[in-house]
Design brief:
With 134 residues, the chain is α/β, with parallel strands linked by helices. The protein has five helices and eight strands; from the N terminus they run αββββββββαααα.
């Protein structure tokens, strides 16, 4: 638009540097000349206009620091340990274990939705559709 309106030739480009162990959520926009430092998290839909420091969590438009990854990890660890199936989570190999996932699905569905039959859930990984009484 500026090229046509002002009859000048413009170009706005720049390097985007994404370091190790970065998580960028869906729809985030990174503008030119920014660095996303190691272990950072960029929230969905954020517009990053300046560098993101190591271990920071940024979100919003324009993106701003809303927290630290280390604090989020501590919070999620506490939440995980409070779950009735925490022992299964602690015993699995890595972040996902095919051998115990069906049991975890059963426990999760039972915990959050009551004693709903979950044989279909365990096979498909999908939650059952709710039923309503009129």
């Amino acid at each position: 638009m500026l090229n046509q309106a002002e009859n000048i030739k413009l170009e706005a480009v720049g390097k985007i540097d994404i370091r190790d162990n970065v998580f960028i959520r869906y729809g985030a926009i990174l503008l030119p000349n920014v660095t996303i430092s190691s272990k950072a998290l960029v929230g969905a839909g954020a517009v990053v206009t300046k560098d993101v420091a190591e271990g920071d969590i940024v979100a919003a438009v324009p993106a701003r620091r809303i927290g630290r990854v280390e604090d989020l990890v501590k919070k999620l660890q506490a939440q995980t340990q409070s779950l009735p199936w925490a022992d299964l989570i602690n015993s699995r190999e890595g972040g996902f274990d095919h051998a115990i996932e069906p049991e975890l699905v059963e426990l999760r569905v039972s915990h959050f939705y009551g004693n709903t039959p979950t044989s279909t859930v365990a096979r498909s990984g999908a939650l059952p559709l709710p039923t309503f009484n009129n």
